[in-house]
Amino acid sequence: MNILVLRSSVAALSALSLSACATTGSREELGTVFGAALGGLVASHVANDDREIWIAAGALAGGFLGNRLGRYLDEQDQQRMALATQQAVATGDAQSWTNLENNTSGRVRVIDTEVKSNSVTVPILRERISRVPPLDIIGETYRSMNSSNLRGGPSTDYVIVGNLQPGEIVNVIGQVQGANWYMISQGGVGSGFIYAPLVEAASDAQIDDSGFDAGTDEVMEAQIADHQVCRTVEQSITLADGSTHQSTMEACQGPHGWVAQV
Fold it and tell me: Which of 102, 111, 135, 145 has minimal CB crowding within 10 Å?
């Protein structure tokens, strides 16, 4: 885990503890406070066999834990619902699941899609990124198809600031508006631009950032003007007693994946 992500996680846990002291401390209330950012953090506190499931659910996992439906489900069904939510938001298609062991089922469907113009803050390496142009946010994993150069801006006129090896997995923050270039991040920090045809989508791949660690003195925050897709989903569950429960949540594309809006 890079130093920036580690400090963010510690801060979130500290705030969570303070919230627990100041409120009744229910799972619903505490989850609502931090849900959008805790998918990976949740993964670090569950059994190894379940960790990949929570990581796959991404930042929406925490958002679902904050949702009032989470209190009706056990951990396995929470995982199923979090994954269904992630898949529905990412694809726009309805997703369903059933647990035959306890006769519980769930369904998630997109009820609204909207493109918003927002300003998003992302950390970048100050010595690498020369300019941050407006982006269409993507926030997905990609694979380098060949040995490829990273540049300080979205054209070959910019200096080479790094490279990717064949098969290397990175996060694509977004595509430069009006240009066939991607801005990528490594270790959660924007690290350069790559010509889009040199990488391919790899949504199921896991990023290994163990060899990339940026110190806080190397990182600065940049405001990115972007077009951001947001989707509202309806989540519904049916329990063994026949009762049904529904809720809605909104998620927007962020620089590192879909993020629940809480």
Answer: 111
What share of residues in the chain are helix, strand, coil (percent, to 5)? 30, 40, 30
pLDDT tens-digit map of 7-59: 333 333 333 333 333 333 333 333 333 333 334 434 444 444 444 444 445 55
Sign of CA dihedral 214, 217, 218, 219: positive
Give the Cα separation of 90 and 239 in Å (integer): 26
Nearest residue to 110 via CA among 128, 88, 143, 78: 88
C-alpha distances in Å from residue 259, one per residue of 5, 34, 35, 68, 85: 16, 11, 9, 17, 11
DSSP conformational letter for 102: T
SS3 227: strand
Find out whether 147 and 164 touch, Cβ atoms under 8 Å.
yes
